[in-house]
Amino acid sequence: MYLTGYTKTARQRREKAALLLIRSLAGLVLTVLAAILVYILVCGLPTVNWSFLTSFPQNAMTSGGILPAIVGTFGLAVGSMAISLPLGFGAAIYLSDYAKPGHLVNAIRLGVSNLAGVPSVVFGLFGLSLFVTTFGFGRSLLSGCLTLGLLTLPTVTASAEEALRQTPLSFREAALALGANRWQAVRQVILPAALPGMLTGAILALGRAAGETAPIMLTAVTAYSPILPDSIFNEVMALSTHVYVLATNGNNILQTRPQQFGTSLVLLALVLSLSLVAVIIRAKLRRGRKW
Amino acid sequence: MATDFPVSSDPSPPAASKPRGPLKAFALRPRLSPAEKGSRLFFLVCAILAMGQMLLIMIFLFREAGGLFFDRPDSAGQSILAFLFDQDWYPTYSEPSFGALSLIAGSLAVTFFSSLLAAPLGISLALYLACVAGNRTRELVKPAVELLAAVPSVVLGLIGMVVVAPFLQNVLGLSTGLNLLNASLILAIMATPTVASLGEDALSAVPRDIQDASYALGATRWETIWQVTTPAALGGLATAVILGLGRALGETMVVLMVAGGAAQVPNSLFDAVRPLTSTLAAEMGETAVGGRHYQALFALGVVLFLMTLTFNVLALYLSKRWRRRR
Lengths: 291, 326
Prior knowledge:
Number of strands of chain B: 2
Helix content of chain B: 55-70%
Low-confidence stretches of chain B: 1-28
Shape of chain B: globular
CATH topology of chain A: MetI-like fold
CATH class of chain A: Mainly Alpha
Mean pLDDT of chain A: 88
CATH architecture of chain A: Orthogonal Bundle
Number of domains of chain A: 1
Shape of chain A: globular
Oligomer: heterodimer
Number of strands of chain A: 2
Radius of gyration of chain B: 27 Å
């Protein structure tokens, strides 16, 4: 075509402009996100030291450390995994290896995928009504763990099922051909192959549980605790709610900015390092997969 | 992938062995070992629990909320219409009023305005990752975006209070920077990685060959992206945006910290709002279990639950329809 001399430059100009726009918008987003991380790091770093991590809050939480909040967040996150890992892995194994396709499986899938979108504060209401009030556990570590466990259950189930489905059918056929029954095939062949993938999802869920605020505000957390919890029926402090309480309540909001940023940094480091571990495991898995 | 591989039986007894009794056909049915039976039962129970949770949540929300709409000895029941369409939320007055319209409007407003930013930014980032960036850049940036989706919302709320609020206050000359605009900005930052990550999945799932065909016809990269890849992934992109919206709608801490907290239907971007989620988190600590206020908060929870459920079902429907067409 003879007209291309003109049209081509117009097209090329449009091409350049469009790609530049996409690149710069993507760059803008990444810059903003990176700036937030750097800001928290810079503001939080001066506060975080060994005694901040290992001492109790003092003077109406205007000084001192965040030990009870670290212990509380740790307890809540690990406790919630104790609920959601067995249940989620079990449900995933049922869906991938035991269930025959049908209404029941469809209903379970539909329930799981819809639960993943239910807001965390609604889980908080549910936990308040069921565990705190009906079961009479009160506002406690136990209620918080149960609530967070149910909150993370859909994520754990969905990612575990995904990992199980990625193990090839031939593994199952080979195990059965050797005379294994289904349970033996699952336990000795399929689970070992799928476990790293399942754990990746679980670690991501653990990070999410550690960062959650609203559900534990309703079910487990107290603003200030002078002692470490010694039973699962104690109220606890948590990193996320500690930031919220310091930043919004009382007369010392400006005075406690360093503590707010310090606590945020600890929380962020915890959550991001957990997620980072998961991302690295997954990348290794993809590269090293033999099937 | 087929999941129903045949159940293996114990080695069946040879024909010469002792007959098992009158019902010989039973010998042909697989006899399941206790481990097999037990594991099957356990996994089934797990799966049913995982699903039944949805029902449990609904039962408990509706049970606690229902009381608001019935008469009691000390107070008359709220009418459902007044609850949904009355603007006055004065739960602690001596003559309390439970009108949720301002709160619903607040939730919808922050969701809408945050999506105005999060949808284009998220999709741009998705396009960049899926179609523009080189392999090595993508390998680095995609995990980074996923990491950023995990930033706890309370941290973003703190940024909104300490950085964005004073900025808005000074630049725009407002009395306070804690308002609809601030909440929308922070929610957009929160939802963008979600939209980008899901959108990138949708774009990457577009078959390679139709893009190659487009290049073979002489299309440039942008023409291929705009006229081939994006239309093919449209359902997935819409799903990504809706799920991002759902995340903004259900987000609690950000709006609790930066939206200002005034229960009013907003007139401008600079008005303070009080979305459903922040009302729940802020007021639940001060109510008596079983009281009118407590029930009204659960009723707000029901409204929120139904709104997010609508978003989810819509997203599910879109992604399914889109998949069928391919």
